[in-house]
Model the fold of this input.
Amino acid sequence: MEKLKIVFMGTPEFAVGILDTIIKNNYDVVGVITAADKPAGRGQKIKYSAVKEYALEHNLNLLQPTNLKEESFLAALKSLNANLHVVVAFRMLPEAVWKMPKLGTFNLHASLLPNYRGAAPINWAIINGETKTGVTTFFIDDKIDTGAMILSKETPIKALESAGELHDRLMNLGCEAVVETLLMIEKGAVKTTIQTDSSEIKTAYKLNKENCKIDFSKSGKEIYNLIRGLSPYPSAWCFIKDQNEEWNVKIYEVKLTTEPHELSIGSIVTSKKEIKIAVENGFLEVISLQFPGKKRMTSSELLNGMALSIETKAL
Done:
């Protein structure tokens, strides 16, 4: 068995769970690479990535390159003498980086490849109404999420599950997949499967303001899946217009009911505690939402301090 010397590359919370599992399984992590610090929020305070926070807490050797092709970074990476790179939610690597270690560079991706290659696989699986997803480990090549697959693990998507809940379950499943992959590599027992392309493959496009906006002309089920697939982050949004006022509102959680009505699509019906939006063949009862300048709250909390007229519409 070959003793592994690992460089880990990752940035968000999802990657932290995997790095922690690698450490707890007594693997030798000789270096951690994460995104450069950047200002965030209204005060533009410097924010560390979740992986940097973890690396500092555990006194791990940390590199934060801005340019992965820079000679000084490549020299620093080479000097770590790693024989394996493990990548989780990082960025596209240049060939000089992924080809460097003797045993290769593998990535953990939060989908059942070849479906949902790309930036937001957890969100799109829910948005598209999938009933199952999973995680895949694969050796990196020169394209995004196309390399030879090592192993995959499948899990059902629950009917009411949000992206946040699925994220946490897939992180745990990913921990198992990474440890199994490391064992296979250690023993020299890896058998890979080449990904096959077809026109049926679904893509996990990067999320942006446009594709997170609710389109009320779609079916209630499609809107429901969009909202839970974007909750809690980055969140689905719409405009709510009441007479002369219009707000950009984030909607985090809804309940879909199917019932006939004659209201125009997007009409809002309120009671003392409820906000319901008319959709095709039913209503979306809004459980939690966020108006500009306010914190996330339940519909009843919002209605305690705000009255909406019968003319209010979601656009």
In short: The domain at 5-187 is CATH 3.40.50.170 (Rossmann fold). The chain has a mean pLDDT of 94. The radius of gyration is 23 Å. Residues 276 and 285 are 4 Å apart (CA to CA).
